[in-house]
Give the backbone structure.
Amino acid sequence: MIDPSVHNVGKGIHKDIQYPGKGPLPQYQKDTKALFHFRTYINNDERTLIDDSRTWDEPFELLFGHSFQLESWENGVKSMRPGERAMFYCIPEKCLGYTKLSKTLRDMHKRKKDKDAVITKSCCGNQSTGYCDLDKLTGQSLIFEFDLLSVEQPGEYSKQIWTMTSDEKRLLVVELKEKGNNEFKAKNYDVAEQHYAKAIGTLEQLSLKEQPNSEEWNFIEDMKMPLLLNYSQVMICKKEFATAVTHLNTVLKREPKNVKGLYRRATAHGGCWNVQEARDDWNMLAEVDPSQKSLVTRRLLELDAKVKQKEAEDRQKIKRNVLNLYL
């Protein structure tokens, strides 16, 4: 439970210094950047570990003055000096937004580690984050442990993507998308994949500082959709159909009637030999866009022919295996 001897850092947030930092308290102003590692625990007798940034690729970067999702994190870091380690005990109301943040960070790490990773699968129902431990955090008091590595003021570091204006963000993503398109046309699929993936990753980092369903958050999500479509087409060309399906699921969850999304997911399902799912997507495409009915009819006939061919091949294999038993 919350230790009454620790320092108070705003209502509902209590601080316990583990190791003191060095120097004066930094000035935390707009665009000040703090780099730190964190651990998150449930505030129970077992002190159950939820996340540890040390197991991921990089420390967390927090840029002040940009409506970050967790006020408790901003308030906590503002009380720290570089080199300091501190524990912040937060009441449930001060932990709102952590589930969303954790899911985003885990999904980003999973995608970097394994581009075929499925990040949308629910393990605990339709409202699940896809991570059962996160689904159980509602109403929990959490403990955040921060190791503050460095603090940099505006002008002391190269301008980062999340400090750009909306126009600059648009230009950067458009530039990356155009590079990806050019490489795709040249059939340099690996290079195109890198450009699209960088653009998608940039948008995901940008979304971390925005309130979910805010105007800017929705703008970023909308920017992501054509990039996911393009990335998925690259995966189809590389015959990495499962990866394509994963990203097209994201597109169609947001835009269920996206014609390109349905066409490409039907193709990818066919490549994965998800026959029923492929049929469902082809039929949905014809319903959403009646002008595609003749195309859909051809694709369904092609799919049926492949199914019959595979069934015939399977029967031949069974016959050969049976004959081999008697030889």
Confidence is low (pLDDT under 50) at residues 1-6, 118-126.
